[in-house]
Each structure stands twice: as C-alpha cells, then as structure tokens.
Design brief:
Elements lengths: L4 E5 L23 H13 L4 E4 L24 H8 L7 E7 L5 H15 L3 E6 L18 H19 L27 E2 L4 E2 L14 E4 L4 H10 L2 E2 L6 H12 L13 E2 L2 E6 L3 H12 L4 H12 L25 H12 L3 H9 L5 E5 L1 H13 L5 E4 L6 H16 L12 H5 L18
Parallel strand pairs: 1-2, 1-12, 2-3, 3-4, 4-7, 7-8, 8-9, 10-11, 10-12
Antiparallel strand pairs: 5-6
Helix pairs in contact: 3-4, 4-5, 8-10, 11-12
C-alpha cells in the first residue's frame, strides 16, 4: 500500500494572519531560534518528510496601511535557519525558497550542495520567481520584470543548477596520496553555459552530493509554473480549495511529464493543508473561530489587497466585492481563485478575508482526528495528491495537535510510516537519484 508524504511549512507564529495575537502562540519566534528547533523536533517526532520554508525579499508583505499588524515582515533568513536546524535534526528534509529573479545560480548550487553534504542528503530548494514587486527595489532594479520573462529566467536558472550539480562524478575525488592526485581530471566537468540570462563557466566547487542533486521544489500554479514543474521539479506544492480542483491540477501536471521523458512517480504533488483538530468537532470549531475573531479588519483588507492585486482597504468589510474587480494574473493564480470563490459563495469582503487569512487558498480541515483523516485519505486515494504540505494555523499548539492526534490515525490506517526509512530525502519521497548528464555508458569504466 502506498503511503502519503507530509511536509511542514514553517512560519514564525503560524499561517493564520492573526496567529501572533493568540496568547498561546510563539509570539517571539521571529527572533528566537529555539522556537524553530522545537518545531523541527516535533516534526521529526511525527516522522514528517520535510521542513519547508518560504521566503520574502522585502518587509513590505502587505499593504502599508496594515504593515505594523503583520507578523511576517521580519524574521530569520530561511537558508541560515535550515542550516542551523540540520544540526538539531537527523532525518527530516530541509527545503527553503530561493528566487530566480534575484539570486545567482552558481551561488544557489553551491549553498544547497553544501547543505546536502552536511545534512547527509536532506536538502531541497524551492524555486520561485517572486511575485511581490516591492522586492525588486531591494535588488538594484527599478521595477519587477513581467511574469512571463521571470519564468524564462527561471527555466534557464534551473538548467544551470542541474548542470552545476553534475560538475563532479561521484568517484571523482580519489584522494590518492601515493600518486599525489586529489581528483581525476576526466571526472570533473566544466559546464561552460552561455545563455540569454546567465553565463556560468563552472565547475561547481562543491563535490557531488549524497542525493545526486538536492530535491527541486516548485510552487507555481500558473501555466508557466506547471510547465517548469513538469520539466524540472521533484515536488510541487499546490493550493487547492476542494478535491475536484486538486484532481484537475494533479492530472494536468502529471500529464505533462511524459514529454520530458519522466514518469508520474518522478514528481510528488503536495497541496497545502490547514488542520485544526481536537477530540470533538465542537472543540475544534471553537479553536478555529477564536483565531478568526482576532483578525483586525484593517489587516484583513490589506491582506486581501495584496493577494487580489486590487486596493480594497477603503471598502466596507460587510459588503460584497465590487463586480468590476477582475483577476490580476501577475500577482499569482490565486487572485482569480479568490474572486471566483467570493462570488460563487456570495461572501462579503470580511468573509473572504476570514476564509483566506488562515490558508491563503489552501484546503482547510476543522474536526476530529477521524474526520480529518477521512478527508486526507479521500484526496490521497482519488488522484488529488501524493501527500500534503501542512500549514498549521498556529505554532506550537495546532501543529502539536496534528502530530499527537492525526499522525497516529494515519498510521492506524496504514497511510503513513511508523518509523523513518534509511537514506536521503529522495529515498523517503520515493524519488529516483538523477543520473549525471556526463554518466559513462554502463560497463565503461573511467580510466
């Protein structure tokens, strides 16, 4: 029986925008490393596959009118954070975001190859083009590039990454003291990439890693994002409100793999999942409602403005959205999804921001361990996902509740591991080790 994969999307106090206001949240996590150690060790106790951290390149993560109400404007830089967490964990994967719009592929290849080596094969990089236009102003740019061009850059960026990670054969470093030879010349490969956006000589000055190359993650749901994932990603984090939407996304992306010579199992699709769980439905709902009541209206409207691509900060929160608001593709596919849902459900502005404040467009489950797992199992067994990326509304309580209540129910049904398997992150995810582009034909030995 196949088993689902589970990741934990870490965020200082939680994924609900009002989580920091709850008296039981880790309100100081943005400056307190020990809070993240606790998250990571709880995740390992729950036998999760990976930790995942998004990133921002600007403090301006919501509209100016409510920036001082936003807990996600300043916190620990994710790559440094995960590197430190590697010393406090033993099994769980370590994945964080890097921007193809602002970073250089040689630097990223070097950093994540190093993390893969020091963690024993647990590193992964989440490739994004960055949707927040304010970020460009911190990287010597006057304006953010158009979305289409950002994805052209991303495609070339990932090809350079993969080429650099193939710089050395696994047996290149013979370290032969007798001959005075540290590595064999014919097992080093110079990339000499000269493309439209990048010129990179190579080779990478880090050896081939335990996974062959770190796991590549992609999170875009646009046409360009789906194509990039089908071509190059090992994992894709999706965002689906319901099973029908998830099934359509799953089928579409998996159906693109064959033209790149890939098999369905070569890409794991893990939509985001927010869970509030308790012994009874009433208790779980009460916890969820408590967080919803903590959303300040100014913050809710500012949050929606950033996500919709329209300024709704001056609108009455108890009125429906204006009919003339249309989807803004450049801020991401969720702009249209949010507008469609609001109109389909007849929601007011307040109802819309309350819905998305906890999840940013992901699946939400509120209930008992049995009802939560019923829904997870239905998605997993009906072509909607290969597992989930957990987005707990609040740390530590809601994530600890998931590990203590939901994981045992998953295990009882045979849907999730009862102990970590040996090996790397790729091994645990059921992903093949990628063959080097310079691999010698089978049976041909290096001289």
């Amino acid at each position: 029986m196949s088993q689902m994969k589970l990741g934990l999307f870490i965020r200082p106090t939680g994924h609900h925008i009002a989580s920091w206001r709850h008296p039981n949240s880790h309100v100081d996590a943005h400056v307190n490393f020990e809070r993240f150690v606790q998250m990571a060790q709880t995740a390992e106790r729950g036998l999760l596959d990976m930790l995942f951290s998004a990133d921002t390149h600007t403090a301006w993560t919501t509209e100016d009118s409510a920036l001082n109400r936003q807990h996600y404007s300043a916190w620990l830089e994710p790559f440094t954070l995960l590197s430190a967490l590697s010393a406090h964990t033993s099994h769980i994967g370590l994945v964080c975001t890097r921007s193809t719009s602002f970073d250089q592929p040689y630097t990223i290849a070097r950093e994540f190859a190093t993390l893969d080596l020091i963690s024993g094969g647990r590193a992964g990089v989440n490739i994004v083009t960055t949707g927040n236009p304010r970020a460009a102003l911190n990287y010597n740019q006057d304006a953010h590039l158009p979305k289409h061009e950002r994805y052209l850059i991303a495609d070339e960026f990932v090809e350079v990454l993969k080429g650099l990670w193939d710089s050395w054969d696994a047996d290149a470093f013979v370290r032969d003291r007798e001959r005075g030879v540290f590595f064999e010349w014919d097992r080093m490969h110079v990339l000499n990439h000269k493309g439209k956006y990048f010129q990179v000589e190579g080779p990478l000055n880090v050896a081939r890693t335990p996974q062959g190359r770190p796991v590549i993650v992609q999170a875009g749901a646009s046409e360009e994002g789906r194509e990039l994932a089908a071509k190059s990603a090992d994992v894709i984090f999706g965002a689906s409100q319901d099973m029908e939407m998830a099934q359509a996304f799953y089928s579409d992306v998996k159906g693109r793999l064959a033209k790149y010579g890939r098999q369905p199992g070569d890409l794991k699709i893990m939509p985001g999942l927010s869970v509030t769980v308790a012994a009874t439905q009433e208790e779980a709902q009460a916890k969820a409602d408590e967080l919803q009541e903590l959303i300040h209206p100014d913050h809710g409207r500012a949050y929606l403005s950033r996500r919709l691509g329209h300024d709704v900060t001056g609108l009455d929160p108890d009125q429906p959205l204006p009919d003339d608001l249309g989807a803004v593709d450049d801020v991401g596919t969720r702009s249209g999804q949010m507008l469609d849902m609001a109109r389909r459900e007849g929601w007011t502005l307040r109802q819309l921001y309350q819905h998305f404040a906890a999840t940013r467009g992901h699946m939400v489950l509120v209930g008992t361990p049995e009802t939560v797992v019923d829904a997870m199992q239905e998605w997993f067994e009906n072509g909607a996902c290969d597992g989930f990326n957990l987005i707990p509304p609040m740390f530590p309580g809601e994530f600890e509740a998931f590990v203590d209540l939901v994981v045992p129910e998953l295990q009882r049904r045979g849907l999730f591991r009862t102990a970590y398997e040996e090996g790397t992150l790729r091994d645990r995810l059921g992903l093949r080790v990628p063959e080097s582009r310079y691999a010698r034909p089978e049976g041909q030995a290096a001289e």
